[in-house]
Design goal:
This protein is α+β, with helices and mostly antiparallel strands and 166 residues long. The chain has one domain: Umud Fragment, subunit A (Ribbon), CATH 2.10.109. 22% of the residues lie in helices and 29% in strands. It is built from 3 helices and 10 strands, in the order H-E-E-H-E-E-E-E-E-H-E-E-E. Strands 1, 2, 3, 4, 7, 8, 9 and 10 form an 8-stranded antiparallel beta sheet that branches. Strand 3 and strand 4 form a beta hairpin. The longest helix has 29 residues. It is elongated. The N and C termini lie far apart (76 Å). Its main location: mitochondrion. Keywords: Hydrolase, Membrane, Mitochondrion, Mitochondrion inner membrane, Protease. Belongs to the peptidase S26 family. IMP1 subfamily. It is an enzyme of class 3 (hydrolase).
Length: 166
């Protein structure tokens, strides 16, 4: 009887570990569902919108300008932030706020990206903490899941003029 109970217990633990490893790999390498909070990405992503984030792009270095990414916060490593990629390594970016009379520019260093929220007046982003290491990117947002009225791929940046091509 004891042998039977121990056998079932170890089988259960074995299956739990196996399925836990599969779930971990799926969420780490494939993607997952993310609930976004805060006003920094409005109007593209509202507070409490639910999105799908895929993680393969970061592993294959295929993040591009205009992509919306989930990133470990440079200010608080325990939290994630959602921002749009404005510049990749070597790109020239505008480092000043939109309301500044004099515009300042800088180049994104190797291995970094420049991130900004779509709501430029209410976003803590690379204009505050500088370029973000590529290694902090957790995933790229593919599409919005909730609310159902907005289901689908995300729209282009309302700040497209901030992308510099020279």
């Amino acid at each position: 009887m004891l042998r039977n109970v121990l056998g079932k217990t170890f089988r259960f633990l074995g299956y739990t570990v196996q399925y836990g490893c599969i779930a971990h790999c799926a969420f780490e390498y494939l993607g997952g569902i993310v609930v976004c909070s805060g006003p920094s990405m409005e109007p593209t992503i509202q507070n409490s919108d639910i999105v799908f984030s895929e993680n393969l792009s970061r592993h294959f270095y295929s993040i591009r300008k205009g992509d919306i990414v989930i990133v470990k916060s440079p200010n608080d490593p325990k939290s994630n932030i959602c921002k749009r990629v404005i510049g990749l390594e070597g790109d020239k970016v505008c480092t000043s706020n939109p309301s500044d009379f004099l515009k300042s520019h800088s180049y994104v260093p190797k291995g970094h990206v420049w991130l900004e929220g779509d709501n430029l007046r209410n976003s803590t982003d690379s204009r505050c903490y500088g370029p973000v290491p590529y290694g902090l990117i957790r995933g790229r947002i593919c599409f919005k899941i909730w609310p159902l009225s907005d289901f689908g791929f995300l729209r282009a940046s309302p700040n497209g003029h901030r992308f510099l091509d020279d």
